[in-house]
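Listing 4. Sequential folding, example run.
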Amino acid sequence: MAESEMFNKGLAVRRDVLGTEYVDGSLAKADDFMMAFQRITTEWCWGYAWTRDGLNRRERSMLNLAMLTALNRPAEIKLHVKGAITNGLSVDEIKEILLHATVYCGIPAGLDAFKAAHEVLKAEGKLS
């Protein structure tokens, strides 16, 4: 199936934020079943939402970290902490976002978010 213009726009943003190696690896591993998900997330999330005017990538990363904390999705938080770093967020800003989300989402969700972020920040050499 030929990819849409929205897919191609999304693919470029997705690669910029999450890294070409990660994104291309996800696409390469996708069979026909999983490729349906790869298409929808690349087209809708990265092509439609992330390319809109109104918020920049940095602000979108902030929102993602807060929403993923609310949803208690540590695996996605890890991925988006790396993206947040790419988009210019500092360790202190990431910490403040997670603290703010913890107040509204609860200690268990906040703890999972902090653990996930801490793991990534250490691996990326952002924490000693």
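-- end of first protein; second protein begins --
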Amino acid sequence: MRITTNALALLVPILCTTAAHAETSVIHSRYAISALGLPVGVSKFETRISPGSYSMTGTLKASGLVALFKPTTGSMSVSGRFGRNGVQAERFALDYVSGGDRQTTDIGFSGGNVTSAVNKPKVKKRKGWIEVDAAHLRNTVDPISAMLVKADTPGAVCDRTVRVFDGAMRSDIKLNFLRTERFSADGYSGDVVTCRAKFLPVSGYPGGKKEIAWLRDKGRIVVAFAPIEGTDLYAPVKATVSTQLGPVRIYATRLERRME
């Protein structure tokens, strides 16, 4: 369950704008989640962008048959700052309940490095566990902040490898350019840059786990990023990830912005 939830966290991020002025931008967004063509969940987010910093709160709720057989609800909060080289996370918190089981994760960051990570219940370290060492926790971000990209040109959006820590697993997400296409949702319509994403596990997982090996060797992840008007930032609006059970699709249905 943890891998599925973290995949959703990675692929249901924020649509942001940055502030080159003294005002605060507030973005209300809604995302639909489907698996095998059937609706399985809905996420809603409020993102606040001030000069030099960002924060987001969001909720996740199961829908369709998933809600009947395995009710799932969750909440998430993220905060950080904009540095010279992009996003620097400060705190990530996730709290979700699925089928009666509750999981919470709280990660602290400073200067681009992880300073604390608490999971309740604690992560079970199975046979063949690959430990996370101190070097793995440098220059990393949480799964949500990882998807806010600073780039000078559309082509540069996909030219990067992002170091991600979700509270247990450290992974690299390698992005490569795939195509440019059109995308529309309530409040947004325009071109988006689509990247192919390669999942590369680093540590914090059992080395022989078949699901992780399949996602690394055979998994296909595609993420589309929209340019944020007046900035050099891009943020995701849709994503598809292949799993052993079939494709999971996440896409924005509402993106509305106001100024404060």
